[in-house]
């Protein structure tokens, strides 16, 4: 019952009375129903009548609601807005936590079918709002409401904790360097990482200062949480590639800003940790994609619950912890967010499988080149649907011929791009660093040519393979 009360004495005392009156402790909904009765009785002193009570229960189920979503008339909506537990937000009215969670739990126990129907209606309403949202801030507010409606209860527990967070989160600056270093060391110890290996990664991340970190401070101003949030681009490749390895070109091909890479997110306080994770999603909405590499089974479960796309493990146990990090991503562009909300909130949807959504041709070609030596994997390529590559054998031959033709191009840029593709994909390289060294190219030039080469093959493929 401690989690139900969330440290609020009034709720804790009401929960104790519920148990004393016979509510079974193993049925939290029954206890919450008793507690909700006491809450409504107190609120009845503020607003006479009973019609508003059902509307309040509906409000706790959908999170924040405007007049249309709530289905209440203007007088009832105004009456709810005057209650002490109700606050006005950018998306309408909302009940303050932890009272909202308690009352929603009671509503789900008392009217489970109505509760599910109302959640489904809220999902559809949020999807419509996402399609018309104009700014990243608007979109993130709607995404946050989507987290509240997630079908996986572990997502709601991890990202929408019952108690409000007292932390302040801001970008780290030069004065935070020592605090960031200490928190990264604590993160490595907490995660069971080899100190020397995690230390080398931390040095890479901090190589250009603290620009790619956020820091969380508690109510007394003490640094208690940190996250490494790096925009994927040529400047940041050195710190990102060791944790993406063979998956790196998937995110680098064809775009200057390939998303937001999340390398670490740490705080021992679960409430502040949830706030940090929500903050990372805020930034990911602005970048249009979130890319995560994590060795933590706990975080991997969370990412699957969030319906991020899994790409598999990298080659090496870079942290020396007995687990190879696994890579996940989620497209968060304005066009993709409504579909993600649908997956996130659909109880019949499992974690998204790799390749479940068609990628643009540069990524599909990069994937096919990675799988060129594995006929079974190549047999799953969407490129086989094209009339000029109807079989695995024909597709393999087309890829080989196209790479070699590009490497022999009279255009110096095209030729260098072809040599990059030939060296990395066809030359049995251990990684991008080794390929760049063989070609005597800087990392920045190497990745520019890699993207250029995949785009060139994409254009050739779209033109019918000629």
What does this structure look like?
There is one protein chain. With 466 residues, the protein is of the alpha+beta class. The chain is built from 23 helices and ten strands. It has helices spanning 2-5, 9-20, 28-43, 51-62, 67-70, 74-81, 99-110, 112-132, 136-148, 153-159, 177-191, 195-205, 237-240, 248-252, 270-287, 297-305, 337-345, 361-370, 375-378, 392-407, 412-426, 432-439, 443-462, and strands spanning 64-65, 86-89, 92-95, 168-171, 213-217, 223-231, 260-267, 289-294, 309-313, 326-331. α15 links the parallel β7 and β8. α2 (9-20) packs across α3 and α3 (28-43) packs across α7 (99-110). The protein is elongated. The relative contact order is 0.07. Residues 352-360 have low confidence and may be disordered.
List the helices and strands and how they pair.
Blueprint: H1 2-5, H2 9-20, H3 28-43, H4 51-62, E1 64-65, H5 67-70, H6 74-81, E2 86-89, E3 92-95, H7 99-110, H8 112-132, H9 136-148, H10 153-159, E4 168-171, H11 177-191, H12 195-205, E5 213-217, E6 223-231, H13 237-240, H14 248-252, E7 260-267, H15 270-287, E8 289-294, H16 297-305, E9 309-313, E10 326-331, H17 337-345, H18 361-370, H19 375-378, H20 392-407, H21 412-426, H22 432-439, H23 443-462
Parallel strand pairs: 7-8
Antiparallel strand pairs: 1-3, 2-3, 4-5, 5-6, 6-7, 8-10, 9-10
Helix content: 40-55%
What composes the largest sheet? 7 strands, mixed
Beta-strand residue percentage: 5-15%
From the alpha carbons, calculate the radius of gyration and give it in angstroms.
26 Å
If strands are numbered along the chain, what order do they take across the biggest sheet? Answer: 4-5-6-7-8-10-9
Distance between the termini: 68 Å
Low-confidence stretches: 352-360
Structural class: alpha+beta
Tell me the number of strands. 10
What general outline do the C-alpha atoms trace?
elongated
